[in-house]
Specification:
Blueprint (H helix, E strand, L loop, with lengths): L2 E3 L9 H5 L5 E2 L14 E2 L9 H5 L5 E3 L9 H9 L2
Antiparallel strand pairs: 1-4, 2-3
Length: 84
């Protein structure tokens, strides 16, 4: 089960990217898409579910896919769509 970033809470502080051992959080600073998106995204195919990103997120924007609050359930599809 992958983790999901809720865009409404994401501050793009990049702490999650720095903590991720498999570099599954995008886009990175310098990527042309970085400035055009309001949130970072977790690649569900690459995420190893280690939860390192959860521990460092200052805005509580990262959830296990099965635990995304009901008001943010669209975040699962939005995260997947970014990588398709």
């Amino acid at each position: 089960m992958a983790h999901v970033i809720v865009a409404d809470r994401c501050t793009k502080d990049n702490l999650c990217q720095e903590s991720c051992p498999v570099a599954c959080i995008a886009p990175e600073v310098g990527d042309e898409r970085y400035e055009t998106v309001d949130s970072l995204f977790i690649d569900p195919e690459t995420c190893t579910d280690c939860a390192a990103c959860v521990a460092v997120c200052p805005s509580d924007a990262i959830f296990e896919e099965s635990d995304v609050p009901a008001e943010f359930t669209d975040a699962v599809a939005v995260n997947r769509a970014y990588f398709n």
